[in-house]
Specification:
- Helix content is 40%, strand content 21%.
- By secondary structure, it is an alpha+beta fold.
- The protein has two domains: 99 residues, Beta Barrel (OB fold (Dihydrolipoamide Acetyltransferase, E2P)), CATH 2.40.50; 69 residues.
- The chain has a five-stranded mixed barrel with strand order 1-2-3-5-4.
- Helix 2 runs antiparallel to helix 3.
- It is elongated.
Length: 169
């Protein structure tokens, strides 16, 4: 089980909306900040992760919790999210190249780009369908494992949304 500390924002029936502040992997290797991950983090910033987790312990809004995701299903989910769109991109590009050879001129780039774009769109659509179909599947769902006793300082609920406490928004 892959675990992350978070804070319950709201309850939605048997599920809880949890915000997790991701820890950076920087500092854990010998490159120490000179890799692509640290570069992307510097450009894009670090954003909190919002997820729905099964609330098996009856956590309430504002409580710090430990959320777990089954490690066994992570490679399968990653393959669907990353590899499926990439595979359909390549297959769409090959289909466009084949069509260009039959109808236009061999080596034309337009049909390859159109086919690749259509394939990528299909891959994203299939990936979203997979996500929607398995959103409530216990094998893929995050679960609140326990209340967090110690750990990183939790951000107040109002600070997570950028409004000051007592603002009324």
């Amino acid at each position: 089980m892959i675990e992350e500390t978070g804070q319950v924002l709201a309850l939605r029936g048997e599920l809880a909306e949890v915000v997790c502040h991701r820890r950076s992997a920087c500092g854990g290797c010998t490159i120490n900040g000179a890799c692509g991950t640290s570069l992307l983090e510097r450009w894009l910033g670090r954003h909190p992760l919002h997820l729905l987790a099964a609330n098996t312990i009856g956590a309430r809004p504002g409580e710090p919790v430990v959320v777990g995701v089954p490690a066994a299903t992570l490679p399968q989910a990653a393959a669907i999210v990353y590899l499926l769109p990439l595979l359909t991109l390549f297959l769409g590009g090959l289909a466009g190249d084949w069509w260009a050879g039959l109808n236009v001129t061999p080596g034309a780039d337009g049909p390859v780009l159109i086919g690749g774009g259509a394939g990528l769109g299909l891959g994203f659509w299939l990936s979203a369908r997979f996500n929607a179909r398995h959103a409530r599947d216990p094998r893929f769902q995050a679960v609140i494992l326990r209340r967090a006793d110690t750990g990183p300082v939790m951000v107040p609920l109002t600070a997570a949304y950028g409004t000051p406490a007592g603002d009324g928004r």
